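> tool_call: predict_assembly(chains=four)
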Amino acid sequence: MRPLVHPAIEDITVEGILHVLSDPVRAAIFASLAASDSARTCSNFIQMQDKEIPKSTLSQHFRMLREAGLVRSERHGVEMRNTSRCQEVEQRFPGLLGAIMQAHAAQCAERAAKEAG
Amino acid sequence: MRPLVHPAIEDITVEGILHVLSDPVRAAIFASLAASDSARTCSNFIQMQDKEIPKSTLSQHFRMLREAGLVRSERHGVEMRNTSRCQEVEQRFPGLLGAIMQAHAAQCAERAAKEAG
DNA sequence: TTCTTAGTTCACGACATTGGAACCAATAAA
DNA sequence: TTTATTGGTTCCAATGTCGTGAACTAAGAA
């Protein structure tokens, strides 16, 4: 089993961040991690947006989030504990994650409104 | 020749914007368009970042920028005039493009500094 | 040792991206 | 008129990336 790869803060790229967050599932995972104080495991996200995400897909999503520098993962026994690296990224690219998450949230609210109305 | 497709402002998505700007060439094109007052043609961008972009590739990049809602293109005779849709997008997702472009600029400056030694 | 849990890796099909070659449409030159 | 040129598009084949089921691993419990 390969060791977990976490880029140094200075190796994080804007392209990488944008690409990894351009997928709605990964964006939702990241939003949830960013909003929560404590670490969350991968399997917390098997149910998302009214559908099941296969374990293997989830594993890839977490790898991509990790290698883009957005998430820190640590193995604890049999499970993985994931936290966002928001604060570090905020230092490097001020305002970026906030703006993206806000836009995602706005779009999400808009869709919910359209759905209901 | 297919007509040019421009999404209505309410059909522009965050995912679409992030994906299209996660490519360094497209990000550079968009930054240049956003910074310039007047329209620019496609062929203005054949030389970018010390290398040539093939015409066909450039054409695809512009199509993607257009269909994501970031750029407006109009045929004028033999050429295309492209402008950014910054202001519209700003209305829909306030702060998003600004934060992204600022992060790109910061990264660009950083790379230039590292290059210079 | 065997089982369970949580996640990873592999392999393959589906889809996206790149770029050369051929093409089209508008205008300028002959 | 034709013919040539310019600016961009479309087609297609090679290559790359993504999502997923099946098989696997590693840690801890029974």
